[in-house]
Amino acid sequence: MLDIVVPIILTVITAATPLLLAALGELITERSGVLNLGVEGMMVMGAVAGFAVTISTGSPTLGILAGAVAGLLTSLVFAFVTLTLVANQVASGLALTMFGLGLSGLIGESFVGKPGIKLEALHIPGLSDLPVIGPILFSQDLLVYLSFAMIVVVNWFLFRTRAGLILRSVGDNHSSAHALGYSVIGVRYLAVMFGGLMAGLGGAYLSVAYTPLWVENMTAGRGWIALALVVFASWRPTRVAAGAYLFGAVTVLQFHAQALGIGLPSQFLSMLPYLATVVVLVAISGNRRATLFNTPACLGKSFVPDR
Q1: Measured CA distances, 280 to 232, 246, 276 (Å)
Q2: Nearest CA to 276 among 237, 224, 236, 198?
Q3: Residue 196 in contact with residue 8, Cβ under 8 Å?
Q4: Which CATH number characterizes residue 88's domain?
Q5: Nearest alpha carbon to residue 17 among 116, 108, 150
Q6: Contact residues for 20 (Cβ-Cβ < 8 A; gap 6+)
Q7: Is position 26 within any domain?
């Protein structure tokens, strides 16, 4: 029995990690009052940059760092357009996704079909050899451990630090935060950059650790699922983690169902994660009062400081 359960848990963790990284970054962005629908574009830019640098240098670690930087730089385009030029956030986010998908396809064209270099798991002597918990908790790669740590760090930052309080105040009432002397635009720039960095890490995880190869549009809608996770979690980091692993389990379900020969069309099994996303969003919309209570009041609203 354990021979079946442990591999399933391991695949759920790996499937959930890119979603968790991207969703935690977007949570911080939205807590500041900025709605960035370009998560998919930032993730795919992180994926192509991570793979390209890994192949070019032979170092998956440098590839991961490059993916993070690519996501951050892509987010700066969105930040400049929406925060400095005060463009519509929804339209700009959609444009960023299309821009990222197109540019990544152009950059990655020469890398299609090339074998990648996988980010190796860390082996902790003694602990990795423990039954059950050894392979699950002590034989993961660096980004999986980073995703675990970021759940704690983001939760601590938001609800236990002064900077987190300022971020939330900017998202809830940017006019009052500005009146108190806080730089609303500066806070939002930093939040968007953090969101881009995390989305880039999630994309780099896909091309360097999850499946070490590059194919065009390899994020396959994971950025949109990450966006849905933030709403599903009511903008709470611990709930984001629970949702990420739930969606990871749904993603893995399709592969095990196909392996077991369950008589369902492969197209239906492939759409299960996205079907689950729609079902969750519909269920959340039924409790409108709770949703509005947790939503940052200034989410998606542009701010122009008094001159």
Answers
A1: 7, 11, 6
A2: 224
A3: no
A4: 1.10.3470
A5: 150
A6: 147, 150, 151, 202, 240, 241, 244, 245
A7: yes
Tokens of 35: 């709605």
Answer yes or no: is 299 within a domain. no
pLDDT tens for 253-265 read 776 666 666 666 7
Contacts of 149 (CB under 8 A, 6+ apart): none
Domain count across the chain: 1
Nearest to 244 by CA among 277, 212, 218: 277
Among the residues of 210-264, which ranges form H helices? 222-232, 237-259
Contact 145, 122 (CB under 8 A): yes
CA distance 16 to 255: 14
H or E stretch at 101: helix 89-107
| Segments forming the whole domain that contains residue 74 | 2-294
Is residue 304 assigned to a domain? no
**How far is the first Cα of the chain from the last one, in angstroms, to the nearest whole number?**
67
Residue identified by tokens 């236990």 is: 160
Task: Give the three-class secondary structure for 183.
Answer: coil
- Beta carbons of 69 and 191 less than 8 angstroms apart: no
Does residue 274 carry a pLDDT above 80? no
Which amino acid type is present at position 212? P
Q: Output the six-digit token pair for 132.
A: 């059950």
Least confident of 61-75, 216-230, 284-298: 284-298
List the alpha helices (DSSP H) in 108-132.
none
22-50: per-residue pLDDT in tens? 999 999 999 999 999 999 999 999 999 99
Encoded amino acid at 230, one letter: V
Find the DSSP H helices in 161-220.
162-172, 174-179, 184-205
In a domain, 28, yes or no: yes
